[in-house]
Design brief:
It is an enzyme of class 3 (hydrolase). Keywords: Glycosidase, Hydrolase. By secondary structure, this protein is mainly beta. Helix content is 10%, strand content 36%. β25 (284-287) and β26 form a beta hairpin. Bound molecules: beta-D-galactopyranose (GAL).
Length: 912
C-alpha cells in the first residue's frame, strides 16, 4: 500500500501542540517556490528531493497557494459524492502531484528547530536537504517535523511532494472546492534548549472571580513563569492555580483580554487570556452562568481568486462585516480556520464552534458501509485529527465548543474522539451534528429543520438545542428568517443557530464568477456552491441585510408616544448606544431628535415617553434608531444596531392632472404570472417528501409563456382571456383607464399557485433614473422584508439589480406609493399606487425570459428597452434549495384581484 493510501495519519510528525506566539527566531518560508505538476504519481520526477536535482526548468509558484488557481489543472466542486470512485482507502492513478522546492539561507545552523506547515491539501511528503522528514495528511491541520538535525548554515533545500488525493481525502468530503496545494504558511521555528513546548491556559470565571492556571510543557525541565502585569501577577511558576478577585470576564459582547507572558530563561511566549466558564446547566448552554443566544453563521474560508489561501486581511474583513451585521457566533464549517481568524475572534468578540477537519458524507453512496467514522482501521486517523484541532486552538477564549466534524454519520471513532476531547479539555462542550441521541454531544444540533419541527423541540425538554445549519442562503433568499427568530425568542431551549453559509464560494474565471462545472469537471454539483450571505467579493447580499435586522440585539417598538426598548444582549447594558428619532412626511425627513433612554441591563425592558411631534402634511412615519455612541473596535460611532418604524399619519389621496396615454409605452401592459426562478424555486422542499419544485409546477402550468386574446374593447376598456398551451384559459384580465387611472381586474378560472401577479410594461431604455417612495433601499419579498423601511429612495436601473451569481428573480422594491422613472433631462413617467394590494416594482434592461435563461451574470445583455414590472403579489422565497419551502402564509394563489394605479407624465425639472 502506498504511503498516501494507507489508513494512517502519516508518519514522522512531532506531537501536536498549541500555536504559540514566541520570541524564538522564526523564518517565514512563504514566497516563490519552484513547482512541477505531474498528472499521476508515476509521472512525478524521481529524486526531485535531492539537493542537486536540477529544477531550473521548473515554474515558479507562490506559496501559500492552491495550484489549480494558478493555471495548473482545475478546481473541482462537489457537495456529497467524492469526485473519484468510492474505493477506500485507495485513490485513482490520476492523482495530480505537485512537487515543490525551496532554497533558503541560514547564517547559522538552528539546532532543535521545527518545520511547521499550517495547511497542506491533501497529503505532503517532506524532505530537508535530501533527508525525508515524514508524511502528513489532514489538510486544514498543522503539522511539525523535527528539522534541526538536518539544517545547516548556508543554503538549505526543502522539497515537498503534494498529492491531491490520498486516504485523507476520504475524511475531507466537505461541500466545497477540491483545492490541492500548500495553501497556508510554512515556517521554520527555532526551539531553544530550555524553551517552551506547549501551553494550556485554563481561565475560568465564576461568581465574579477569575481562576487561572497555565499549564506549561518545557524542554529540559525548565521552569516557566507567568506574568500578567494588569493583574499584578509577576513571575508565578506555571501550573499554580491563582484565584483573582478583580477580573473582568471575557464574552463575545465584552471581549476583555489580559496580556500575559510565559517565560523560561530562553523563550518567551505571549498569551492573551480571557476568563470565562462554559457549561450546560439546567439544560441550557451558558457562559459565565448566562444562557447564550447564538446568532451565527457557518464560515468557510473562501476567496474568489485564492480559494482557501486567504490573503492577509480577509479574516478581519469577514469579522468586521459579521460584527456590523449583529452576528455573534461562527461555526468554522467544516475545519479549523486559519489561526489568525481565531486571534481576531478573541479580540473582537465572537462565540466560536470550532470544527474538526472531518467529513465522510460520500459514504452515503455505499449506505455508510466502511464509514471511516466507525471503521477501526481509521481510528488513528480520526483521533489524530481531533488532537491536532484541539491542541492547536486550545488557548482561544472565543472557542466555547469543539465540533467533531460534519456529516460523518455516527460510529466508534466519533465516540473515541469525543472521549479524548472531554478528557483533554473538560472546560469546553462537544458538538456532533450527527449525534441526535446525545451519545456524546452536549447540545442537540440539527440542520434545516422546518419551523414547525423547531417549535416542537422548543416545547419539549432536553439538551440545549441549536440549528448548526439553517436558512440556506442560496441565491435570492432565505425567506422565513423572522419566523425562526420568533421561535428562538419564544423558547429558551432554542439557543439559536448558524445560517448556511457566510460566503458564496464562487471562483473568478475571467470576467465572470464560476461555479461547479465551469472548469469542465466531469462530475460536479453545479450552482450549489453559491449559497452565501455575502457575494464572492464580500459585498453583502440582501439576505445579510435581512439577517442583521432579524437578529437585532436591541428590540425597539413604538406605541403611541411610548418607546419600548428591550436589551437582548446577555452581558452588556445599553450605555454604549444612543437613540434617535426621525419624523418624515412622504419620505422626506422633517425632524430628528435624540431620545434619552436610561441604562437598560441585559435582558431588561424599559419604556420611555417620546417627545410630542408636530403634525405633518403627507404620509407620516416615525423611525427610531439605536446607534453606537462611541467607536467600537469593529465599527465607528453612529453605526446602526437596531431600528423600528411606525406610521403616524395615513397618506392623503391627491388629484393630479396630465394622464399618460398608452402609446407612450413601447408595449401595452400585460399580465405576468411568472418570474425567473430563484435557486429556492428550483428545488423541492426537503421537508415535503415527493414535493415538486414550485418552478416546475409553474413551468408545467405554462406560466412562462402566457398567451393573451382580446375579447372586448370599449373606450378605455380592454378585456382579455389569458392562458397557456395546452390548457384551458387561466383567467380573464380587464384593463380599464379613466382619465389618469388605470385599473387591472383579474378573474381566475381556477385556483393555481403562481410566481407573481402583476403587469409588465416595456418602456424606452433611457428612463433609467428611478426614484420611489416606499420600502427600501434594498429588495423585499414577502418573507424577507423586515430590513426594508419606508422612505424616499433613488437608484439607477442598473443599481436596482442584485448581482446574484446565478441570475434569477431579484431587485423587487415593495410598498411602492409612487415611483418615477426619468431620463437625463428629467422628463419621464410617474406611477402611483391608488388602490388595491401593496404594489411592488422591478425594472430591468432584460426580459424575465432572458433573466431566466442566463447562467452567469455576464450573459445578461441590456436590450433596447426597460421592463417595468408592477406586481401585487409574489411567491415567498423560502429556503427549499436546502430546507423548507415558503411558509404557507407566503405562497401565492391566483385569486380575484383588483388594483388601480395612476400613470402621469413627469414634465422635467422646471416643475420642481
Ligand atoms: C449541509 C452541509 C453543508 C452544505 C449544506 C448545503 O448538509 O453540512 O456543508 O452542504 O448542507 O449547502
Amino acid at each position: 500500500m502506498s504511503y498516501y493510501e494507507d489508513h494512517s495519519p502519516g508518519y514522522g510528525a512531532r506531537p501536536a501542540r498549541a500555536r504559540l506566539s514566541t520570541d524564538a527566531p522564526t523564518l517565514d518560508l512563504s514566497g516563490d517556490w519552484r513547482f512541477h505538476l505531474a498528472p499521476t504519481v508515476a509521472l512525478a520526477p524521481d529524486g526531485f528531493w535531492s539537493l542537486d536535482f536540477d529544477d531550473s526548468s521548473w515554474d515558479v509558484l507562490p506559496v501559500p497557494s492552491h495550484w489549480p488557481l494558478h493555471r495548473y489543472g482545475i478546481p473541482t466542486y462537489t457537495n456529497i459524492g467524492f469526485p473519484f470512485p468510492l474505493d477506500p482507502p485507495y485513490v485513482p492513478d490520476e492523482n495530480p502531484t505537485g512537487d515543490h522546492r525551496l532554497r533558503f539561507h541560514l547564517d547559522e545552523s538552528w539546532p532543535g528547530a521545527v518545520l511547521r506547515f499550517e495547511g497542506v491539501d491533501s497529503c505532503a511528503r517532506v524532505w530537508l536537504n535530501g533527508h525525508e522528514l515524514g508524511v502528513s495528511r489532514g489538510s486544514r491541520l498543522p503539522v511539525e517535523f523535527d528539522a534541526g538535525p538536518w539544517l545547516r548554515a548556508g543554503t538549505n533545500m526543502l522539497a515537498v511532494r503534494v498529492h491531491q488525493w490520498s486516504s485523507g481525502s476520504y475524511l475531507e468530503d466537505q461541500d466545497m472546492w477540491w483545492l490541492p496545494g500548500i495553501f497556508r504558511e510554512v515556517s521554520l521555528i527555532a526551539r531553544p534548549a530550555g524553551g517552551i513546548e506547549d501551553v494550556f491556559v485554563h481561565a475560568d470565571f465564576d461568581a465574579g472571580r477569575g481562576k487561572l492556571r497555565v499549564e506549561a510543557l518545557t524542554r529540559d525541565d525548565a521552569v516557566a513563569r507567568l506574568s500578567v502585569p494588569s493583574l499584578g501577577i509577576e513571575g508565578v511558576p506555571a501550573g499554580i492555580e491563582l484565584v483573582l478577585d478583580q477580573v473582568d470576564p471575557w464574552t463575545a459582547e465584552t471581549p476583555r483580554l489580559y496580556d500575559a507572558v510565559l517565560a523560561t530563561e530562553t523563550e518567551r511566549v505571549a498569551l492573551r487570556i480571557g476568563f470565562r466558564t462554559v457549561e450546560v446547566s439546567d439544560d441550557l448552554l451558558r457562559v459565565n452562568g448566562t444562557p447564550l443566544r447564538l446568532s451565527g453563521v457557518n464560515r468557510h474560508e473562501h476567496h474568489p481568486d485564492h480559494g482557501r489561501a486567504l490573503p492577509p486581511g480577509t479574516a478581519r474583513e469577514d469579522l468586521l462585516l459579521m460584527k456590523r451585521h449583529n452576528i455573534n457566533a461562527v461555526r468554522t464549517s467544516h475545519y479549523p480556520p486559519h489561526p489568525e481568524f481565531l486571534d481576531l475572534c478573541d479580540e473582537l468578540g465572537m462565540w466560536v464552534i470550532l470544527e474538526c477537519d472531518l467529513e465522510t458524507h460520500g459514504f452515503g453512496f455505499s449506505d455508510w458501509q466502511g464509514n471511516p467514522a466507525d471503521d477501526p482501521a481509521w481510528t488513528d486517523a480520526c483521533l489524530d485529527r481531533i488532537r491536532r484541532t484541539v491542541e492547536r486552538d486550545k488557548n482561544h477564549p472565543s472557542i466555547i465548543v469543539w465540533s467533531l466534524g460534519n456529516e460523518s454519520g455516527s460510529g466508534r471513532n466519533l465516540d473515541a474522539m469525543a472521549e479524548w476531547t472531554r478528557q483533554r479539555d473538560p472546560g469546553r462542550l462537544i458538538h456532533d451534528e450527527g449525534d441526535h441521541e446525545g451519545r456524546h454531544s452536549d447540545v442537540y444540533s440539527r440542520m434545516y429543520l422546518p419551523h414547525a419541527e423547531v417549535e416542537a423541540i422548543g416545547r419539549s425538554a432536553g439538551r440545549p438545542f441549536i440549528l448548526c445549519e439553517y436558512a440556506h442562503a442560496m441565491g435570492n433568499g432565505p425567506g422565513g428568517l423572522a419566523e425562526y427568530q420568533e421561535l428562538f425568542d419564544r423558547y429558551p431551549r432554542l439557543q439559536g443557530g448558524f445560517l448556511w453559509e457566510w460566503i458564496d464560494q464562487g471562483l473568478r474565471q475571467g470576467e465572470r464568477i464560476a461555479y461547479g462545472g465551469d472548469f469542465g469537471e466531469p462530475y460536479h454539483d453545479g450552482t450549489f456552491v453559491i449559497d452565501g450571505l455575502v457575494f464572492p467579493d464580500r459585498r453583502p447580499s440582501p439576505g445579510l441585510i435581512e439577517l442583521k435586522k432579524v437578529i437585532e440585539p436591541v428590540r425597539l417598538s413604538v406605541d403611541g408616544d411610548r418607546l419600548t426598548v428591550t436589551n437582548l444582549y446577555g452581558f452588556r447594558d445599553l450605555s454604549s448606544l444612543r437613540f434617535e428619532l426621525e419624523l418624515s412626511s412622504d419620505g422626506v425627513p422633517v425632524l430628528s431628535k435624540a431620545i434619552d433612554v436610561p441604562i437598560v441591563e441585559p435582558g431588561e425592558t424599559v419604556e420611555v415617553g417620546l417627545p410630542s411631534l408636530p403634525e405633518v402634511d403627507g404620509e407620516g412615519w416615525l423611525t427610531v434608531r439605536a446607534l453606537l455612541a462611541t467607536d467600537e473596535p469593529w465599527a465607528t460611532a453612529g453605526h446602526e444596531i437596531a431600528w423600528t418604524q411606525r406610521q403616524v399619519r395615513k397618506p392623503l389621496q391627491t388629484r393630479v392632472p396630465e394622464p399618460v396615454t398608452f402609446d407612450e409605452f413601447v408595449s401595452i401592459p400585460r399580465v405576468e404570472l411568472w418570474r425567473a426562478p430563484t435557486s429556492n424555486d428550483l428545488q423541492a422542499a426537503m421537508t415535503e417528501p415527493g414535493a415538486v419544485p414550485v418552478a416546475e409546477q409553474w413551468r408545467e402550468a405554462g406560466l412562462h409563456r402566457l398567451q393573451h386574446r382580446v375579447i372586448e374593447t370599449r373606450n378605455g376598456h380592454l378585456r382579455t382571456r389569458v392562458g397557456s398551451a395546452p390548457h384551458p384559459p387561466l383567467l380573464t384580465a380587464d384593463y380599464s383607464w379613466a382619465s389618469e387611472e388605470f385599473t387591472v381586474r383579474i378573474e381566475p378560472d381556477r385556483p393555481l399557485e403562481i410566481a407573481r401577479l402583476g403587469i409588465v410594461l416595456e418602456l424606452p431604455s433611457d428612463l433609467d433614473q428611478v426614484e420611489w417612495f416606499g420600502l427600501g433601499p434594498g429588495e423585499a419579498y414577502p418573507d424577507s422584508r423586515t430590513a426594508s423601511r419606508i422612505g424616499r429612495y433613488r437608484a439607477t436601473v442598473d443599481e436596482l439589480q442584485t448581482p446574484y451569481v446565478v441570475p434569477q428573480e431579484n431587485g423587487a422594491r415593495a410598498g411602492i406609493r409612487w415611483a418615477e422613472l426619468t431620463r437625463a433631462d428629467g422628463t419621464g413617467l410617474r406611477i402611483e399606487a391608488v388602490d388595491g394590494p401593496e404594489l411592488s416594482m422591478t425594472v430591468r434592461r432584460w426580459s424575465t425570459e432572458a433573466l431566466a435563461a442566463a447562467k452567469h451574470t455576464d450573459e445578461l445583455v441590456p436590450s433596447d428597452r426597460l421592463y417595468l414590472h408592477l406586481d401585487v403579489g409574489h411567491y415567498g422565497l423560502g429556503s427549499a434549495s436546502c430546507g423548507p419551502g415558503a411558509l404557507p402564509a407566503y405562497r401565492l394563489e391566483l385569486a380575484p384581484t383588483v388594483w388601480t394605479m395612476r400613470f402621469r407624465r413627469v414634465a422635467g425639472p422646471s416643475r420642481g
